[in-house]
Amino acid sequence: MSAAIEALMAQGASQRDAARVLGISHQRVSQLHAERKPTRIDGQRARSAKAAG
Length: 53
Prior knowledge:
By secondary structure, the protein is mostly helical.
């Protein structure tokens, strides 16, 4: 499902458009989209853990 959301959004679909196409809520699209993209904080933690370890 996450890959489908990413593919639709890469083609210019909004989160609401993707939700309509996939038959899920726009809130669920937002959740899945957020899970797939690491946040800046997560990225910083990953880099600092590598540097420290």
